[in-house]
């Protein structure tokens, strides 16, 4: 039994007339009649009562008609879903991001744009550090990740730079520097710094340490916060100052002021990573909707060492 037999039968059952059914199907009436007879022979039962100028469904025909409609409807849905999947319209997408990346308007606008264009794709999210996100990508547990470089080169993952944002100093609103529009890093000499976790001499935390050393002083680290957002809460609690990406300037604005660094100008880069052999249209559909200030891309492999936030 073929699907065309079901289509021929359903058309005839709906029209209750061989000639009209044939016209609707775009075939001649004799072949339609032959196909219905062949279907009845295969089933071993009569589907229609042949009457002068029309046909009627038998009891068995009415039962078969209901099931045939469900089968054809199911096939239609399967075709539509597979076509939508090929276009990236349905499926699942796992998105990872570092904590500070979640504050970026580029990230939130990308998510908003993708949700608007692909409302039927199921999204899941994972927050972790860059090294952990890279491992989740390799394991196939997520499909794309917003991460902060530096990254080491390899061939299993692709990293595409997106944009670079300035780092700003976060101080308590009553701090002596709170009213400044900008300041030099050397002016923070003697301040108690709150920094975020570090595992190697890489990442935003160590970029700050290196910049301070080059400016001529070793920062006094009063506290290491468990997360980058925690540093701002610690500033609000009068535990010290911190330096964070500009995208976080809206955090704790009730108690914290943000001042730009003029010399040196520190920047935090943000990019998107995915598997180099990625073939999913759902994933490529998401990546294509991420605005980028850079078209270059690099690969990074199994020796990921970046632990940035």
Keywords:
9 helices, two-stranded antiparallel ribbon, D-Maltodextrin-Binding Protein, domain 2, 3 domains, Arc Repressor Mutant, subunit A, disordered C terminus, 309 residues, nine-stranded mixed beta sheet
How is the main sheet built? 9 strands, mixed
Uncertain segments are 294-307
CATH superfamily caption of the largest domain: Periplasmic binding protein-like II
> What's the total count of β strands?
13
Q: Output the CATH class name of the largest domain.
A: Alpha Beta
Write structural notes for this entry.
By secondary structure, this protein is α/β, with parallel strands linked by helices. It has 3 domains: 3-86, Orthogonal Bundle (Arc Repressor Mutant, subunit A), CATH 1.10.10.10; 91-162 and 269-300, 3-Layer(aba) Sandwich (D-Maltodextrin-Binding Protein, domain 2); 166-267, 3-Layer(aba) Sandwich (D-Maltodextrin-Binding Protein, domain 2), CATH 3.40.190.10. It contains 9 helices and 13 strands. It has helices spanning 3-15, 18-25, 29-43, 59-86, 105-117, 130-139, 204-215, 228-236, 281-287; strands spanning 48-51, 54-57, 91-97, 121-127, 144-147, 157-172, 182-184, 192-195, 220-224, 242-245, 256-263, 267-275, 298-300. Strands 3, 4, 5, 6, 7, 10, 11, 12 and 13 form a 9-stranded mixed beta sheet that branches. Helix 5 links the parallel strand 3 (91-97) and strand 4. The longest helix is centred in the N-terminal third of the chain and has 28 residues, at 59-86. The model is unreliable at 294-307 (pLDDT under 50).
